From TrEMBL, chain B:
Domain ABC transmembrane type-1: 97-277
Chief location of this protein within or outside the cell: membrane
Keyword set includes Nucleus: no
Name recorded for this polypeptide: Taurine ABC transporter permease
PROSITE patterns: ABC_TM1 (PS50928)
Family: Belongs to the binding-protein-dependent transport system permease family.
Organism from which the protein derives: Brachybacterium phenoliresistens
GO cellular component annotations of the record: plasma membrane
Domain of life: Bacteria
Length: 263, 291
C-alpha cells in the first residue's frame, strides 16, 4: 500500500513549509525549517522527535490551525487555509464534549454536515463498535476512562469520514497496557479502512509499530532528518500485532530510528 | 466479563455506602439547623413575652404570625355594617408577593437575553469589550437606590421604572458571567469542532454556548439575588401591590408585625428561589465540574 506507483498525486503535499516566531525576548525561533512532505493516500505516517522539534507545528499546519510563515500546504489538491472536515484531528487530551453523550459526540461532525438523523445514528453506532465502545453510546464522556475517551475521540474523527486523520500523541497520557491495546486496535482499523494517518509521537516503539513510514525530526531548526519506510518481511508483519515487536527487523528499525533522534 | 461484573457490584456498593453516609451527614446538619431556628424563635418569644423590648419595636412571633395570616384573608372591620377588608392595601399578601415576583421575573428575563448577547459580543470581539467594559463596571458599582430617582424622572412612577431598575441591577452580573464562560471555553474543543467542518455558528451553538452555560447560569443566580435586594428600592414609590412596597409602607405606618412578616417572606422566597435556580442549573448542566 505504501508503494503505490505515481498514478495519483499525494493526498497531502507540503512544499517548503517553514514556521518562525519571535519570542518575547525578541529572539527569532525557527520552529520549522523549509520542509517538503508528500503523504500518499492510505499511508500511515508517524512523526517522532524530541519536544520542540516542530512535529506538532507540522500537524497544526496540515490541520489548518496554523498558517505557516512560508511555503504552501495542500490537501487533496486544495490549498489549506483553515481547519476543515477533510482533516480530522485526534488531540492528546481527551476533548469530547461533556454536554453530549458519547454517541452524540461521535455523530457531531455528521450533524454539522447535515447528514440525516437515521444515517447519523447508524454510522455513529458502527464506529462506536469499531473502537469497542458499542455499549457506551449513551454514557457521558466523563463516565468513561481515559483510554475509552481516546477511543471515542478516534471514532468521532473516523465517523466524520475525513480524508486525513491527524493524531497528536493521542496515547501519550495512557498507561502502558491500555496504550498497547489501543495501538493494536488503531492499526487494525487503519488497515481495514485504508485511512491516511499522520501520527505524532515521541515513542519510537509506537512509531515503528504503527507506521508504514516514520519521519524523524530534529530541533532548532525543526526539520525532518530521516524518512524511513517501515517494511517488515512481508507486509503481513503488521498483522502480527504484539508478535511484531519481537521480530529482529522491528528491533533493528527501532534502533536505527532511535539513533537518528540522538543526532 | 465476570471480573467487570463484580467490579461493577463493588463500585455500586461503595456508591451506596457513600450515599448513606452522606444522607446521615445531611440529617445531622438539618437537625442542628432546626435546633438553632427553634432556639432563635424561643428567645424571640421570651424577649417579647417578658416585654424586655417595647412590642412596637419588637412584636412577638405570635403577633407576626397573626399579621401574616390576617394579610392573607378577609376581615370584618365593622360589625354593624358588615364591611370587610381583604388583605392589606387592597391586596392579599400573596398578591403582593406575586406582583414583586413578576417584576423580578420580567426584569431578569430581559437582563438574561440582553446580557448573554452583549456578553457574547464582548468576549468574541475585543473592540466591543474595550469600548464597553468601563461602562459596565461603572453601572455595576452603582447602588440602585442611587439612581432610582433619576429613572422615575425619566420614565415615570409606573411599572416601567421598576422593570428598568431591576433590569439594570440584574444585567451586569449576567454579562460578566457570560464573558467569563465564553473566555473559559477550551481552545482544543473549538478546534476539534472546526476540524469536523463547523462554521462560526456551529461552534457557537455546539461548543461555546454549552461550555459557557454553567457560568451563565451562576450569573443568573447572582442577578436574581441582586434583583431581590433591589425590589424594595424599586417599590419604595408607588409599589403597591408589591412585597417590598408593603414592607416599606407597613413600616412607615408602625405596623411592625406586618413589616417583620414581609421581611421573613422576602427572605424565605429569596432562599427558595435561589435553591430552585441552582437545581434547574444542575439539571441543565449535569456535566459541570466533572471533566
Amino acid at each position: 500500500m505504501s508503494a503505490t506507483p505515481a498514478a495519483a498525486e499525494p493526498l497531502v503535499s507540503l512544499e517548503g513549509i517553514s514556521q518562525r516566531y519571535i519570542t518575547d525576548g525578541g529572539e527569532v525561533v525557527h520552529a520549522l525549517a523549509e520542509t517538503d512532505l508528500d503523504i500518499p493516500r492510505g499511508q500511515f505516517v508517524c512523526v517522532v522527535g524530541p519536544s520542540g522539534c516542530g512535529k506538532t507545528t507540522l500537524l497544526k499546519v496540515i490541520a489548518g490551525f496554523l498558517t505557516p510563515t512560508g511555503g504552501s500546504a495542500r490537501c487533496a489538491g486544495e490549498p489549506i487555509t483553515g481547519p476543515g472536515a477533510g482533516r480530522g484531528v485526534v488531540f492528546q487530551q481527551p476533548n469530547l464534549y461533556p454536554w453530549f453523550s458519547v454517541r452524540e459526540n461521535v455523530a457531531l461532525g455528521m450533524r454539522i454536515r447535515g447528514i440525516s438523523k437515521k444515517e447519523r445514528a447508524e454510522r455513529a453506532q458502527e464506529h462506536l463498535e469499531l473502537v469497542g465502545l458499542g455499549d457506551f453510546g449513551d454514557k457521558r464522556p466523563y463516565e468513561l476512562s481515559g483510554g475509552m475517551q481516546q477511543r471515542a475521540q478516534i471514532a468521532r474523527v473516523l465517523a466524520n469520514d475525513s480524508e486525513v486523520v491527524l493524531m497528536d500523541e493521542p496515547f501519550g497520557a495512557l498507561d502502558a497496557i491500555t496504550r498497547a491495546r489501543l495501538q493494536a486496535d488503531l492499526l487494525a482499523l487503519q488497515r481495514a479502512q485504508n485511512r491516511t494517518v499522520l501520527f505524532i509521537t515521541h515513542d519510537v516503539d509506537e512509531a515503528v509499530f504503527l507506521g508504514d513510514r516514520v519521519l524523524v525530526m530534529s530541533a532548532r531548526p525543526g526539520r525532518i532528518v530521516l524518512d524511513q519506510e517501515i517494511t517488515l518481511s512481508a507486509h503481513a508483519g503488521k498483522q502480527l500485532g504484539e508478535e511484531m515487536r519481537r521480530m529482529p527487523e522491528f528491533i533493528e528499525l527501532r534502533e536505527r530510528i532511535a539513533g537518528a533522534i540522538e543526532h | 466479563m465476570s471480573t467487570t461484573a463484580s467490579a461493577a457490584d463493588a463500585s455500586a456498593e461503595v456508591a451506596t455506602r457513600a450515599r448513606r453516609s452522606r444522607s446521615r451527614r445531611t440529617l445531622r446538619t438539618r437537625a442542628l439547623q432546626a435546633a438553632v431556628l427553634l432556639l432563635v424563635i424561643l428567645l424571640w418569644w421570651a424577649v417579647a413575652a417578658l416585654r424586655l423590648i417595647d412590642p412596637l419595636y419588637l412584636p412577638g412571633p405570635g403577633a407576626v404570625l397573626s399579621a401574616f395570616v390576617d394579610a392573607n384573608r378577609c376581615l370584618v372591620v365593622d360589625e354593624a355594617s358588615g364591611r370587610t377588608v381583604c388583605g392589606v392595601q387592597n391586596y392579599y399578601l400573596w398578591e403582593h408577593l406575586v406582583a414583586s415576583l413578576q417584576r423580578i421575573g420580567l426584569g431578569v428575563a430581559l437582563a438574561v437575553v440582553a446580557g448573554v448577547v452583549l456578553g457574547f459580543l464582548m468576549s468574541m470581539w475585543e473592540p466591543v469589550n474595550t469600548a464597553l467594559a468601563p461602562y459596565l463596571n461603572f453601572l455595576r458599582a452603582l447602588p440602585p437606590l442611587g439612581y432610582i430617582g433619576l429613572i422615575i424622572v425619566w420614565v415615570g412612577i409606573g411599572d416601567t421604572s421598576k422593570y428598568l431598575l431591576l433590569f439594570l441591577a440584574a444585567f451586569p452580573p449576567i454579562v460578566i458571567a457570560t464573558i467569563d464562560g465564553v473566555r473559559g471555553v477550551r481552545e482544543d474543543q473549538v478546534l476539534a469542532a472546526r476540524s469536523m467542518g463547523a462554521g462560526p455558528v456551529d461552534v457557537a451553538r455546539y461548543v461555546v454556548l454549552p461550555a459557557a452555560a454553567a457560568s451563565i447560569l451562576s450569573g443568573v443566580r447572582l442577578s436574581v439575588g441582586f434583583a431581590w435586594t433591589t425590589v424594595v428600592a424599586a417599590e419604595l414609590n408607588n409599589g403597591i401591590p408589591g412585597i417590598g412596597g408593603l414592607a416599606y409602607i407597613s413600616g412607615t405606618q408602625l405596623n411592625t408585625p406586618l413589616t417583620i412578616a414581609c421581611i421573613i417572606v422576602i427572605g424565605l422566597v429569596a432562599v427558595a428561589l435561589d435553591g430552585c435556580i441552582r437545581l434547574v442549573g444542575d439539571r441543565l448542566t449535569p456535566w459541570h465540574g466533572k471533566v
